[in-house]
Design a protein that fits this description.
heterodimer; A: about 220 residues; alpha/beta; Rossmann fold; five-stranded parallel β-sheet; four-stranded antiparallel β-sheet; 7 helices; 9 strands; B: about 475 residues; mainly alpha; 2 domains; 19 helices; about 75% helix; globular; nucleotide-binding (chain A)
Chain lengths: ~220, ~475
């Protein structure tokens, strides 16, 4: 895998990163990079370390070897600047059991200081974009598994970010919704967002990937 | 017994033999051991503490109270509360919860459901009767030990305890069985049960509900063993479905978070009511303790416990915010500011409730508002800090093992409650002993500020330190 030579403001980069916990190698050393406005897709068999690599790239997990950076900063989600830049769906996000889908997005918008006047319209548009327009009044526990995945994607897409990191965004989605998500990701990429995802779906990969990295599992 | 039931018993005996060998199911021994431990704990800690409380609260007055109609009223109120709690508990985790494999492979078969589940009904029946009887014995023995009652009081309290346990057990069973629709006809030819009988209630239970509760019970037990009480809380919480038409309106970041907490309480009115009632009750207890010399100062510790639970019931927004620790950032407000903002609703509600109730009670017992008000305010400050410590306490430390010991879990999770109880109780006791002491005032303000600061530091530390290593 060739590393990108020059990094712009919100490039995501992992140089020779690996993760070893006790006797287990979760991720063999690997170098990856995605520059602004491009999409990097990670593939590989189960256990090859895709999720581990994504967690390293978003700064939720320190690598055992190598370095991970987001823009000019070391990837560490404790850094407010990294948190502000990176929207990630790696594992289930915490949702509030007493808020509806619509309420979640309104709250999210308020904490990111979005425009108050257009908030309701943007919330409605965000839900409609993913086919959740009629479900805005539901609570998270009232969704099917596919709808839950769409809601998680809606939360991740809705918050402002320069980098999108998603772990298998296609999971539990039907064919139509997978294509829809691929279109949204492509649009975000074309708008300048750095997109990194682990993905097993060839249709999504073909539509959005500028670079594909196949991870091989650790040998031990 | 019918031929079919005999056949069921034989099949169940075979199944148990396959699962557990000739020694049989060890669950009965485990239940007996739990009862043995409970007796030791009650004897070692429960009896001395309760006896000391009766002694501190004037045995003569307590003895005369036992012979008044108030005693009957207390028993009726306790029974009603136990009945309500039993029904609510049954909806989450009822008395008839077998292991998931047993539900999937045995209960799901053609065996009579009552026969397949009777052992678990038996364990729970024993548990409620034992708990009721032991509680009654504890109360009776404590009054007897404090010379507030004669020996005849003990069998009465044991009988009352058994009755309360039976009522609680009945509503516990009904809370679980009524999750399933009623059986339209006899469950099985040759198997009859009277409507309302335990066997009928157990036969009514549907497989999905039994399986859901069995799996939930597994997760709750796993959460307790691992010290992850956050998982336990989320498992036990009833799903919110109220107030769907209510909408969160976009305001500034702080105002939206405050509005979000108000909305949460409107959608969970039970928690709001419990929080308000306990807040007022805590305020009344504080006002009575501080305003009347007839009330022992030690009651201030009870007021602290009541206030802590009341504040906690109002602070679900804070706990839910704490639940987001460790997940990729979705919300934009810095963690410490968000946690502090989530104190606004429970803090203000508690402040208003406890100061009003405390002041009115003080006036009613012949004291002045000035003697009570500052301590009520300080109680809210201390409980705010305690709630931060509780919501962001994280997982218990596991120094020598990845799984913390039960003692560590108990100490870890009770520490905010114990700290708040000691601070508020000590403050009230000091205020009664030295009502004009300036040093006491300074000490309580320092203590209040310290616990809030410690809480905010904990928020910051938990938000920063969860990153895996």
């Amino acid at each position: 895998m060739d590393a990108v030579a020059s990094l712009t403001a919100m490039d995501v980069r992992g140089d020779d990163v690996s993760k070893v916990v006790g006797p287990a190698t979760l991720l063999a050393p690997v170098s990856v990079a995605a520059s602004s406005g491009t999409c990097l897709v990670l593939r590989g068999p189960n256990g090859s370390g895709k999720t581990t690599l994504l967690r390293i790239l978003i700064g939720a997990l320190p690598p055992t070897t190598g370095t991970a950076t987001v823009g000019d900063a070391t990837a560490d989600e404790r850094d407010p600047a990294v948190r502000a830049a990176v929207a990630a769906l790696v594992g289930a996000p915490a949702t509030y059991r007493d808020l509806t889908l619509r309420d979640h997005l309104v709250l999210l918008d308020a904490t990111w200081a979005g425009d108050a006047d257009s908030c309701d319209d943007r919330v409605a548009a965000a839900l409609t974009q993913l086919g959740l327009g009629d479900l805005g009044g539901r609570f998270p526990h009232e969704l099917s598994s596919g709808q839950t995945q769409l809601f998680r994607l809606a939360l991740t897409f809705f918050r402002p970010s320069d980098v999108l990191v998603l772990d298998e965004p296609e999971q539990r989605l039907d064919t139509t919704k997978r294509a829809l998500v691929a279109e949204i990701l492509a649009a975000r990429r074309d708008a300048g967002t750095t997109v990194v995802l682990a993905c097993h779906d060839p249709v999504v990969t073909d539509r959005v990937a500028d670079r594909v990295v196949d991870l091989v599992g650790a040998t031990d | 017994m019918t031929a079919s039931a005999v056949s069921d018993q034989e099949r169940l005996a075979d199944t148990r033999h396959v699962l557990h060998g000739p020694s049989g199911n060890p669950a009965r021994k485990e239940v007996a051991y739990a009862a043995y431990v409970a007796v030791i704990l009650v004897g070692l800690y429960g009896f001395p503490v309760l006896r000391a409380l009766v002694l501190a609260a004037d045995p003569e007055a307590m003895g005369s109270a036992l012979r008044s109609p108030w005693a009957v009223l207390v028993v009726v109120a306790v029974t009603a509360v136990v009945a309500v709690l039993g029904r609510e508990a049954g909806r989450v985790r009822g008395p008839v919860v077998a292991p998931v494999p047993w539900v999937d492979h045995v209960v799901a078969s053609s065996l009579d459901r009552w026969a397949a589940l009777r052992p678990w009904f038996g364990y729970s029946l024993f548990a409620v009767l034992f708990a009721g009887g032991l509680s009654g014995l504890l109360v009776g023995a404590a009054f007897l030990g404090a010379r507030a009652a004669s020996w005849w009081f003990v069998p009465i309290t044991v009988a009352v305890g058994l009755l309360v346990g039976l009522v609680g057990g009945t509503t516990w069973l009904l809370g679980q069985s009524r999750l399933s629709p009623p059986l339209r006809r006899g469950p099985r030819p040759g198997v009859s049960s009277r409507l309302g009988a335990p066997s009928a209630e157990v036969r009514r239970m549907g497989l999905p509900e039994l399986r859901t509760q069995a799996a939930r019970s597994n997760r709750i037990v796993g959460g307790v063993q691992a010290g992850d009480l956050r998982a336990v809380r989320l498992e036990a919480a009833r799903p919110v479905t109220r107030g769907r038409a209510l909408r969160l309106r976009r305001r500034g970041p702080v105002a939206t978070l405050v509005a979000r907490d108000v909305l949460g309480l409107r959608r969970a009115p039970g928690a709001a009511v419990v929080g308000l009632v306990l807040t007022v009750l805590g305020g009344v207890t504080l006002g009575a303790t501080l305003g009347s010399s007839a009330v022992p100062p030690l009651v201030g510790f009870v007021a602290a416990i009541i206030g802590y639970v009341g504040f906690g019931a109002l602070a679900e927004g804070l706990r839910l915010e704490a639940d987001t620790v460790g997940t990729p950032a979705l919300f934009g407000m810095p963690p410490v500011r968000a946690a502090a903002t989530h104190l606004v609703v429970p803090g203000l509600t508690h402040l208003v409730g406890t100061t009003l109730a405390g002041s009115v009670t003080a006036l009613a017992v012949g004291s002045t508002v000035g003697e009570v008000l500052p301590w009520c305010v300080m109680t809210t400050v201390v409980l705010s800090g305690g709630s931060l410590l509780a919501a962001y306490r994280g997982r218990p430390p596991a120094t020598f093992s990845t799984v913390p010991s039960p003692q560590t879990v108990a100490i870890w999770y009770s520490s905010p409650l114990v700290l708040c109880t000691l601070l508020v109780g000590g403050m009230v006791w000091g205020a009664v002993q030295w009502p004009t002491s300036g040093l006491l005032v300074i000490a309580t303000w320092v203590a209040g500020a310290s616990i809030v600061y410690a809480g905010l530091r904990r928020v910051d530390r938990e938000s920063m330190s969860h990153r895996d290593v």
